[in-house]
Amino acid sequence: MGHVGFLSFPFFLPRSRRFPFPKHRPSPRLQIWPSHQSQLKHQPCFGPMAAMSDDPIREWILTEGKATQITRISPIGGGCVSHASRYDTDSARRNYSKLQKREREFRNHQFLTMLLLLKIGPSMFEGEALGLNAMYATKSIRVPKPYKVGPLPTGGSYIIMEFIKFGSSRGSQSVLGQKLAEMHKAGKSEKGFGFDVDNTIGSTPQINSWSSDWIEFFAEHRLGYQLKLALDQYGDSIIHEKGQRLVKNMRPLFEGVVIEPCLLHGDLWSGNIGRDENGDPVILDPACYYGHNEAEFGMSWCAGFGGSFYNSYFEVMPKQPGFENRRDLYKLYHYLNHYNLFGSGYRSSALSIINDYLYMLKA
């Protein structure tokens, strides 16, 4: 029996599309909480089916997906913006699809509505699919191959991608570091720093306009964007003023560094990292762009990277001078984003990093 369709895992799920989480979960990820387990059991696909013209997901499965029958639909998880489920079919293909729906609750033979959902069009999933395809093309670390993105006739959008069955092993940190470095080494851009489309980091827009200068790109489209958002959203003039001083004075941190535009996953934390049945690393749910490879470690504060990870990574991508002095700079982008997404619980961490850099740079 093949498996096609909507799937979500407790290990890796759509950013900004997860249940509210306790403070020790520092990122906007969908999580399967115990109170929802009763909703997540496999459900056979019985009952009347919608006409294929009204159901683009089913239409794709039964045409381009090479299936003749959907035998089971298995809702796995849900969140504040989307939910995901697995479809079993009579084909040998395995795919995974996520669904974004309108701001209303409804239930039919395919979908399990868990929360009121935001009105989000296909652009979010289009950005995700482009990122997955770019990572897939490097032939380095395993990622789910996307197949189809489109709008739903009822509103919202969907993405269909390869289903990867996860193994029980935690896998090797050393292999993860090596494979990630191989992706950074293989994925280069002649256009400079940025990406072909804007995408999202959580539910926050991530601007990816191309730039030939990494420091300017990071200053304007990463730190600068988040600092302005904090000012607009919270009126936080202290974070904004001090952060702007850092942005204007951070160039010395990059002296003697050769910076190439490497393909980044962009949101690499433990919830977006898994292992397949062979124990090989899998990364998903990206916020891709081409940037300084060190920026990939900006979410390391909740990724659990250990010494073996970094040792293997730097064997492929050698450590640049001043690496340790830049680590918190890249963490700052994600702390600011979490502040803007979730509020004051992350403000002190962001401000502490800013203050430390202002002292270091005598700014």
Please describe what this structure looks like.
Helix 4 runs antiparallel to helix 5, helix 4 packs parallel to helix 7 and helix 7 runs antiparallel to helix 8. Strands 1, 2, 3, 4, 5, 6 and 7 form a seven-stranded antiparallel β-sheet that branches. The chain has a two-stranded antiparallel sheet with strand order 8-9. A two-stranded antiparallel ribbon has the order 10-13. 31% of the residues lie in helices and 16% in strands. The N and C termini lie far apart (63 Å). The N terminus is likely disordered. The protein has 363 residues and is an alpha+beta fold. Strand 3 and strand 4 form a beta hairpin. Its EC number is 2.7.1.172. This is protein-ribulosamine 3-kinase. One of its GO terms (molecular function) is protein-ribulosamine 3-kinase activity. It is an enzyme of class 2 (transferase). It catalyses: N(6)-D-ribulosyl-L-lysyl-[protein] + ATP = N(6)-(3-O-phospho-D-ribulosyl)-L-lysyl-[protein] + ADP + H(+).
